[in-house]
Design a protein that fits this description.
Elements: E1 2-4, E2 7-10, H1 17-27, E3 32-38, H2 42-48, H3 58-66, E4 72-74, E5 81-83, E6 88-94, E7 105-106, E8 112-113, E9 119-128, H4 143-161, E10 168-172, E11 183-188, H5 195-204, E12 212-217, H6 225-235, H7 238-241, E13 242-249, E14 261-269, H8 284-299
Parallel strand pairs: 11-12, 12-14
Antiparallel strand pairs: 1-2, 2-9, 3-6, 4-5, 6-9, 7-8, 10-11, 13-14
Helix pairs in contact: 2-3
């Protein structure tokens, strides 16, 4: 948020690396050197949202996506390196012990939010290319905003769940219905009772943004919200299929969470391994015949209107 010629607002609300770097700097009562990079190739953007361990640098991940080393350039007023081919680089310091109100902003939740860490960034230099392009995105509950939230989480969860769930089929973090952050759908071919709850606990412990996890059988298309809800409607009994944990870590940007904590809910919407009602299906031959009949009907000439 632009507050003046040499004063910006910056929010570190994800509680990830930058938040931790600043927390340590503030403990020492010193400003944190930062560089805001605007206008980069897609591989740089994708690498920047990866969730590697703290001891793994993101520049190496970006180089892997590019298929060659990422070219870097030194900043002029802070001791940092940035992607060389950025359009604009804002160098500066995040001030310790200073907080200022900011916003409201349109957030990924679909609400206007004034919540954040309210940090203040003082620029020390701006570098830019000739005819620089200011790269932004459509903020709010939009595909452009929420895709960048959902995609890395799906990759991370797939890697984690494959370690404990041998017959994992798919993972989805819904963009619209779950804001790319709050809901997780997991499809498994269950081979032992308890696997669905194991998956629920793995997911809820993987990212503090996750609030609701639904685990379904592999006959459910998790990319269709209606099928997932149908599984909940017909395969769930609340007294034995729910996992609820109170007081977990959440996000300040969740409008339902006044203090940044969040209750967590897991729903086991899988069938028991024993006897269970058979799902109604149509034979493929019957479906093919119906489609053929519909195709013939659609191709039939339309009779002319009577009267005129």
């Amino acid at each position: 948020m632009v507050k003046g010629p040499r004063r910006l607002g910056i929010s570190l609300h994800s509680r990830r690396r930058l938040f931790e770097y600043f927390r340590r700097a503030e403990e020492q009562q010193r400003p944190l050197e930062v560089a805001v990079v605007l206008g980069v190739p897609p591989a740089v953007s994708l690498g920047s949202i990866a969730f590697p361990p703290p001891d793994v640098g993101k520049f190496a991940i970006i180089g892997g996506l590019l298929g060659e080393p990422l070219e870097l350039a030194r900043c002029r007023t802070v001791d940092l390196a940035v992607p060389r081919w950025a359009e604009i680089v804002i160098e500066g310091h995040i001030l310790p012990g200073v907080r200022e109100k900011e916003g409201p902003f349109g957030e990924f939740t679909g609400y206007a939010s004034t919540r954040g860490t309210e940090n203040v960034l003082v620029p020390t230099a701006i570098q830019y290319r000739d005819a620089a392009i200011y790269q932004s995105h459509n903020a709010g509950l939009s595909l452009e905003h929420c895709m960048f939230l959902a995609f890395p989480r799906e990759v991370m969860l797939t890697q984690l769940l494959r370690r404990t769930i041998p017959n994992l089929k798919a993972v989805r973090v819904p963009i619209r219905s779950g804001c790319g952050s709050f809901h997780v759908y997991v499809s498994i071919r269950k081979t032992a009772e308890g696997q669905a709850k194991q998956a629920i606990m793995t997911v809820l412990g993987a990212d503090h943004y996750f609030k609701h996890v639904i685990v379904v059988d592999d006959d459910i298309d998790i990319f269709n919200d209606e099928e997932v809800l149908w599984a909940v409607a017909t395969r769930v009994q609340a007294d034995k299929d729910l996992v609820i944990a109170s007081g977990g870590m959440g996000t300040l940007l969740d409008p339902s969470s006044p203090d940044g904590t969040s209750a967590k809910l897991g729903i086991d919407a899988t069938r028991p391994l024993g006897p269970f009602a058979a799902r109604l299906t149509l034979p493929e031959a019957a479906i093919a015949r119906a489609r053929a009949l519909l195709g013939l009907a659609a191709a039939s000439p339309t009779p002319p209107p009577s009267g005129r």
